[in-house]
């Protein structure tokens, strides 16, 4: 799911009528110092990144003066935390915390749920993961009626919330449910929801994830890539998303798998079907091969999209092979894959002669597809290590992985021999 940074989520919460601390983002120490000066009180300087656990990672610092805010920003900006480059910090007023709570709404995709789920706990903060399950109170929200006030009050009473907090907390939960719906959220969590010593309830943090399929409805959010990578998008990620964004037919999303373009034994991985892709990766691991990427083109995409995906996969530098792994009897016209792969390999293999290519295609129009592959690659320059398989090997992932391994070893020996010569 597409994640928003904390400051982006808080701005949307503010528009939804939810209380958030005063603050702004800074991209350099001078801006952080100026913002703290405007606040005229102690501030929190918080690195902006798409990851949780910032407090324990040292990504949140407190400053009693503008000079300290400057120093805190200087210590965070330009660093890397949990795989994310820090290019902005949120400088906001430091709250006088009396108690930390937790409230969140996620989509419960379980068969018994299939609707938004409100969760509330009187225990929140950095150790929310250790809160016992019985301390988290849950309530499913009707997609038609929304969240009824009496339901929220009953939930809070069940959680032993003091009477004087029932109205403000019920108001926050109701507005949070409205924001979750209006912004097409998959998850919207406030941790901590702070009760201050002055008796105010404030959203001190915000984790907001937008449903990928709804991102197009919210151009104002400025979401560049409607995916949650767990790291900064790489050039490969951006190219892959460009393919996906331009044509939603079929899956076909290219995703970086940590390949640095140098390490040995990485292959271009082009599965057809998510479940079968997991089986194939297990088999590749057993033969000491690693996927450089993930590019699934199930869902009956058109040939032009399959071509673009395969071209990106094969454009990765120094990969040791290419696996088209259709480990399933696909209910789609497989000749689209055949035509696309033939075109790509006829373009790529003359420049990478001998590159191992194992092609497994099963399902609708299988025989026609295998014939297209064999005929189209028969006279292809550089296609000296291309093997084509059909349904006889649809479940034999270890055999296919083993053939890939054997061809890779031949290819590596050939390359080493050429280097020595």
In short:
With 421 residues, the chain is an alpha+beta fold. The chain has eleven helices and 20 strands.
What does this structure look like?
The protein has helices at about 5-15, 30-40, 65-75, 150-160, 165-180, 235-245, 275-285, 305-315, 335-350, 365-375, 395-420, and strands at about 1-5, 25, 45, 60-65, 80, 85, 90-95, 95-110, 115-120, 135-140, 185-195, 200-205, 205-210, 255, 265-270, 290, 295, 320-325, 355-360, 385-390. By secondary structure, the chain is of the alpha+beta class. It has three domains: about 1-20 and about 95-225, 2-Layer Sandwich (D-amino Acid Aminotransferase, Chain A, domain 1); about 20-95, 2-Layer Sandwich (Dna Ligase, domain 1); about 235-420, Rossmann fold, CATH 3.40.50.261. Strands 1, 8, 9, 10, 11, 12 and 13 form a seven-stranded antiparallel β-sheet that branches. Strands 16-15-18-19-20 form a five-stranded parallel β-sheet, with helices on both faces. The longest helix has 24 residues, at about 395-420. The protein is elongated, with a radius of gyration of 26 Å. The model has no long low-confidence stretch (mean pLDDT about 90).
């Amino acid at each position: 799911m597409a994640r928003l940074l904390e400051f982006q989520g808080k701005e949307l919460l503010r528009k939804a009528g939810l209380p958030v601390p005063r603050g702004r983002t800074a991209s350099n120490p001078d801006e952080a110092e100026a913002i703290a000066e405007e606040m005229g009180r102690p501030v929190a300087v918080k690195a902006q990144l798409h990851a949780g656990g910032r407090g324990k990672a040292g990504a949140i610092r407190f400053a009693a003066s503008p000079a300290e805010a400057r120093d805190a920003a200087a210590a965070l900006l330009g660093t890397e935390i949990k795989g994310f480059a820090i290019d902005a910090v949120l400088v906001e007023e430091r709250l006088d915390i009396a108690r930390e709570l937790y409230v969140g709404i996620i989509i419960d995709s379980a068969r018994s749920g299939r609707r938004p789920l409100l969760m509330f706990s009187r225990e929140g903060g950095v150790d929310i993961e250790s809160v016992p399950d019985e301390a988290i109170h849950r309530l499913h929200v009707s997609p038609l009626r929304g969240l009824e006030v009496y339901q929220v009050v009953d939930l809070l009473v069940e959680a032993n919330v003091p009477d004087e907090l029932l109205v403000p907390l019920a108001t926050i939960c109701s507005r949070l449910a409205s924001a979750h719906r209006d912004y097409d959220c998959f998850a919207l969590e406030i941790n901590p929801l702070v009760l201050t010593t002055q008796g105010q309830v404030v959203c001190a943090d915000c984790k907001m994830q937008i449903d990928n399929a709804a991102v197009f409805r919210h151009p104002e959010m400025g979401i560049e890539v409607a995916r949650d990578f767990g790291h900064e998008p790489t050039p490969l990620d951006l190219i892959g998303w460009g393919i996906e964004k331009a044509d939603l037919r079929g899956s076909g999303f290219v995703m970086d798998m940590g390949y640095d373009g140098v390490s040995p034994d990485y292959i271009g991985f082009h599965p057809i079907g998510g479940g079968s892709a997991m089986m194939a990766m297990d088999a590749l691991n057993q033969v000491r091969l690693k996927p450089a990427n993930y590019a699934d083109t199930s869902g009956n995409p058109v040939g032009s999209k399959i071509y673009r995906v395969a071209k990106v996969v094969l454009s990765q530098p120094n990969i040791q092979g290419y696996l088209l792994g259709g480990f399933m009897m696909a209910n789609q016209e497989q000749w689209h894959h055949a035509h696309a792969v033939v075109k790509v390999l006829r373009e790529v293999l003359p420049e990478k002669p001998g590159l191992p290519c194992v092609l497994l295609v099963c399902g609708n129009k299988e025989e026609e597809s295998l014939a297209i592959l064999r005929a189209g690659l028969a006279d292809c320059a550089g296609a000296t290590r291309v093997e084509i398989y059909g349904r006889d090997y649809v479940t034999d992932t270890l055999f296919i992985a083993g053939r890939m391994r054997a061809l890779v070893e031949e290819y590596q020996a050939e390359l080493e021999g050429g280097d020595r010569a």
